[in-house]
Amino acid sequence: MILKTFGWSFAVTALGLVAAVLYGGWTGFGVVAILSILEISLSFDNAVVNAGILKKMSAFWQKIFLTIGVLIAVFGMRLVFPVVIVAISAKTGPIEAVRLALNDKDRYQQLVTDAHPSIAAFGGMFLLMIFLDFIFEDRDIKWLGWIERPLAKLGKVDMLSVCIALVVLMITAMTFATNAHQHGGVHVDKAQTVLISGIAGLITYLVVGGLSGYFENKLEEEEEREHEAEEEARKSGKKVPAVVMAGKAAFFMFLYLEVLDASFSFDGVIGAFAVTNDIVLMALGLGIGAMYVRSLTVYLVRQGTLDDYVYLEHGAHYAIGALAVILLVTIQYEIHEVITGSVGVILIAWSFFSSVLRNKRLAAAEGQGSSGEKSEVSSGV
């Protein structure tokens, strides 16, 4: 079962790591490995969400999502999108960006370095919004309750996450301008670029979130209509047009999943810029990670149950928040790639072990309850 589900992922991993060694030596190997783990950790909750929706779909639509969806997610978002980001931010064509990345690494590195403040501001704001919207939502299950309970109460204030994100962006841009001025005025003009790029990241998040919400509402409407049609047909004794209704519902599910998957892919790509500026290593690492996310989605669907490690989603979002802060800090200061990559892994591992301990406590409590019931029955007899 494991080999059948993860076989392609294992093969892509082997090929990707070999390519990383050939391209960038053992340093490239390490960067690709970190990016792969980072992508999996950031997108784990994506796999869980995908599995929850995919299990409601027919085998045909599952196959469509897991084939066409892979092409969009792996080749579109992980391979093409980083090139587009660099091409836009460095004001060069995508073909020229790829050529420079492969043939003139020094020039390419200089272009990316010059464009880094705008990339970091754009990505930092996008990731920060994901984290803030998560942390301000009141959830039944809380991981770090002493932090999450008061923040959930604050989250009742409308648009609080947007206000905080804008304040953080304003402070970042002002700090960047002040520090640049103190060092002779170099890059002072880029403070405005940082501000504009950050606002663009915020707008992008709001648009993606709006599209996801739109498709989710469409999906709910279609499911409601399908249910009403079934009830009406059952009362009248007529046949239910299941194929047509299921097809419509599945189609909106597919659209919703693609938008949702793209948004999760986007944060992985943006987060990767905090680890490396090398498009080739980025594409290899994110591609490997994306394959495992897809395999994990299939595994969860085929098992028929979602993973019960309930704090993993929290850990993934805390990792996103940490990456957002790191990206914004790297506008002005340099942070080592190992620190950037390890923060997310540590948070995911922490949330995983917290989930394991929670499950053990629940199992022990159930065991004690069962023992108490047996004692009462014995006493009664």
Automatic annotation (TrEMBL):
The keyword Membrane applies. InterPro entries: DUF475. Keywords: Coiled coil, Membrane, Transmembrane, Transmembrane helix. The chain crosses the membrane at residues 7-26, 32-53, 65-90, 115-136, 157-176, 196-215, 240-257, 269-294, 315-333, 339-357. Residues 212-239 form a coiled coil. The keyword Transmembrane helix applies. This is DUF475 domain-containing protein. It comes from Streptomyces alboniger.
